[in-house]
Automatic annotation (TrEMBL):
Enzyme Commission code(s) on record: 3.6.1.15, 3.6.1.6
Family, per entry: Belongs to the Ntdp family.
Binding of Mg(2+) 1, residues: 87, 103, 107
Keywords: Hydrolase, Magnesium, Metal-binding
A molecular-function term among this protein's GO annotations: nucleoside diphosphate phosphatase activity
HAMAP family tied to this protein: Ntdp
Name assigned to this protein: Nucleoside triphosphate/diphosphate phosphatase
Group of enzyme by EC: hydrolase
Naturally occurring in which organism (per UniProt): Heyndrickxia sporothermodurans
Lineage: Bacteria, Bacillati, Bacillota, Bacilli, Bacillales
The DUF402 domain, residue ranges: 18-156
Length: 176
């Protein structure tokens, strides 16, 4: 497993439990890269879905991936505040081709006032049965939902008041 280099542009690949590609983000600038943590930034990047459809992100975003946590966090910078989209998924790996993780369907959307909603529980249950998620994965994911909610409530990590602003300023230095 490699380490992405600060300032490099990488792709992000999201897979499903069955090994099939789920989604690809074409360009994310690495703002911090270690073997256990990657923080990236992107803006209006092309996203390719598993069926080949493409779309473009609408706003700047700061992405947080950690090798010890079964979630990743995207802070989206909008005019009315920062929205977070949190994906429950495997810890990331980086292999020179891309930063990769398995998406396990459950998501938490966090609003600028730090209220949040758990999303896609029905999709998770469907895929859990269809793809045969083992019980150990189910327990890990549910524990990580609790950990993520604790981070939100405590304003920890990417949810801390200045986190997104600091990393967005760093991102802008690479854009100039």
């Amino acid at each position: 497993m490699g380490i992405p280099i600060e300032g490099d542009t990488i792709q992000i690949h999201s897979y499903k439990h069955n090994g099939y590609i789920h989604r690809i983000w074409e360009e994310t600038t690495v703002l911090k890269g270690t073997k256990s943590l990657v923080i990236g930034g992107n803006d209006r990047t092309i996203v390719t879905e598993s069926d080949g459809r493409t779309w473009v992100t609408r706003e700047p975003a700061i992405c947080y991936f950690h090798a010890d946590h079964w979630f990743n966090i995207i802070g989206m910078i909008r005019e009315d505040g920062i929205y977070y989209y949190c994906n429950l998924g495997s810890p990331f790996v980086y292999d020179k081709e891309a930063l990769k993780y398995i998406d396990y369907d459950l998501d938490i959307k966090v609003f600028p006032d730090m209220t949040y909603t758990l999303l896609d529980e029905d999709e998770y249950e469907y895929h859990r049965k269809q793809m045969g998620y083992p019980d150990v994965i189910d327990h890990i994911l549910k524990r990580n939902v609790d950990n993520l909610v604790r981070w939100i409530r405590q304003r920890k990590g990417p949810f801390s008041p200045d986190f997104i602003d600091i990393w967005y300023e760093r991102y802008l230095t690479y854009r100039r």
